[in-house]
Amino acid sequence: MNSEMISIHETATTVSEALETRHSIRDFLPKPIPEEILQRVFGKALRSPSWKNSQPWKVHIVNGTKREELAKDLVQAARQSPPRPETNWPESYPSDAKKRMFDLGMKIYGVAGIERKDKEARDQFMLRNFEFFGAPTAVFITSKFELNYFVGIDLGCFLQSILLLAREEGLGTCPQAALGAFPDVVKNALQLPNEEKVILGLSIGYPKPDSDLNRFHTPRESAEELIRFY
C-alpha cells in the first residue's frame, strides 16, 4: 500500500479524477459555500440508485448559527457519555482490515503531529468530528426505513455520489459515522420525528490548501490484491 501527499483544493473535471483524488478532509476554511452549489451537489446526488427506487434517504444541511449550536451540543454530549447510535457499528473485522485501520490511524495522527501515547491529544482530535472539523456546513443523512443490508447499500451509493459531486465543485468532504453517535441531540436540534433515524453525516466545505492533514492521501491495496479476472 502506498500513500502520498496531494492537493485537492481545485475542481475535478472528470469522474475518474474525482474518484482518484478524493479523500477525507479534516481542516476547512471558514468560507461559506454558496447555496446554489449546495443545491447542485445534493440535487444531482438524488439520481443515485436504490432498491426498487425506494430512495431511503433524507438530507439535512446545517449552516450558520444552527451549525454552531449543534456543534456545541454534540461536543458536550461526546464529553459526557459514550456513543449511542441508532445503527449497530461494526465491532469485529478480519485481521487484514484491522491492520489497515491501525496503520491509517497512526499515519493520520502522525501527520496531525500527535504522539501515539498522547491520549489527551487523540481525544481532542476525536472531538473535532463534532465540530465538523471547522467546515461551514454540516450534513446529516437520515432514514425512516427499517435498516438492513440493502438499505445500507443504497445509502452508500447516495453518499458516494455526494462525495464525488462535491469534489467536482472543488469542495472537500469528510463522511462521518461519528455524526450518528448522538441521534437524540441531532433530532432535538433539527426537530426530527423519533422514527427518523440519524444514520451518519458529513462535513463539507473548502479545504485549507496549506494543511498537511488535508494533503494526506489514504493508501489503498493494489488491484492485484483485491480484483480477480476469470
Automatic annotation (TrEMBL):
One MF term in the entry's GO annotations: oxidoreductase activity
SUPFAM superfamilies in alphabetical order: FMN-dependent nitroreductase-like (SSF55469)
Source domain of life: Bacteria
Residues annotated as domain Nitroreductase: 20-206
Gene3D superfamilies for this protein: NADH Oxidase
Key words, A-Z: Flavoprotein, FMN, Oxidoreductase
Protein name (record): Nitroreductase
